Amino acid sequence: MPLSPTSGGHDVGGLRTGSDVTLDVKVSAPQDGTYDLSVFANSMNTADAVKEQGPTNVFLRVDGKAEQEVHLPLGYRWLVWDHADAKVALTKGEHVLTLAAKSLDGTRATKSDALVDKIDLSLANPAAAETIYEAEYATLKGASTDYSRKKVSGPGHVTIGKDQTATFWAYSPDDGEFTLTLDTLGGGRAWLDVNGRRLTGVSAGTTVKAFLSGGINKITLTGQSGRLRLDRLRVRNTDGTLKPTWYEAEAARVAGTAKVAAYPLADGGKAVTDVGGAPGNASTLTFDVTAPRNGAYAVTVRYANPEQSPASHYNPDPLARHAEISVNGAPPRRAWFPHSFHADNFWELTVPVQLKKGANTIAFASRELPNFDGDSSISDTFPDILLRSKYAPIVDKIAVTPLAKP
Fold first, then answer.
1. Which of 344, 360, 319, 383 is nearest to 45 (CA)?
2. What is the pLDDT of residues 18-41, one digit of tens each?
3. CATH code, residues 128-237
């Protein structure tokens, strides 16, 4: 199909419910290795063929075998491209990658409907496993740069005095564990904060295992004493130290009208919906979790948010849902969950919390938030137009992970 928003002027359709389409792509691998594969594709979330399941499932093969199932991304209209990612093992030489509407054994089939733009294949560079942020390029408040010293990694270093700060903006592709290494030249001490949470002190070279959120993370050093000379920050994706503990929503406690319902793409095929409602509702979801020690933890919520108003003449109108998250009965923290395009399309969002050693409760609640007057509701003014959600997202499960380990 010739279409201008595509990478090569065309896309390919046909991977849909009831089809037997296969799409073969010839590739040449320059060397043996495990390659990162990205399928750039799209489905319109409100299309008739997409409404039932949401993400289109297809079957990815290498040379007619090594099959894995991939779910293609949704968008608010056709030709809004995103990508689904997988890893494939290839030997040096020619191969055929296949996207198919039926599994090799014939027991599974594609549901929904998708367009495919292109497939990108890349081999990770081991030298790029670590990202380096030079201190002299950080955002400085009071701290000063010095370009006179030799034997530093970049053109200079930064000196941080008491209450002065150096802030790095570090990218993470996903929520999870990373190793932060602060290379210093001594001279003082500073506090290390990640996304507003204090993790540890830094003096000589310091290494910390820290949980980062997918996207941009704020990493700040604040001078504590002396004058710390900071060369750089190194960030590397690692695993095995900050281990998550997962809790299924269907095993948690529900109250009011909140209920467990079937969602085929949820873990275990079930999730909890209808948390929240009108002001004063008692529809909640409460997890009983255990923490090995007092401290800060990352609570990662696997959720779906299908809430969307009918589109106007030029704009789609997705709504964010919010949850009031309370730990051990304390005043809640409000977290916002972006639209995920479908009730069976699950994303992840992480919220930091403080837990005590032993048993804890993490409760989710919601309601329609009032107008600026603190009393009236937008649904009273416009009862026929959905403008503000009264529900928390559909919750599949949560993970509780220590936020750091020095």
1. 344
2. 999 999 999 999 999 999 999 999
3. 2.60.120.260
